[in-house]
Amino acid sequence: MKIVKKSNFDLDVYLETVVAENVNEHYGKELVKAWQNEHWNGNCQDYLELVEDDYVPYDGYKEMYG
Question: Residue 49 in contact with residue 6, Cβ under 8 Å?
């Protein structure tokens, strides 16, 4: 599993960032939950999500500008 930083506002020009790789699913859920509880509110630009290992982070700059 991976922990990925994503856009809270679904921005078109946004680069998702891999925060951690090869994370155990149980620990990953706990880490994401702890981070959200500490740092996230509804107005934050970013949030963390636990995703599968084969997930490819979105690169809005590449999509928009080639």
Answer: yes
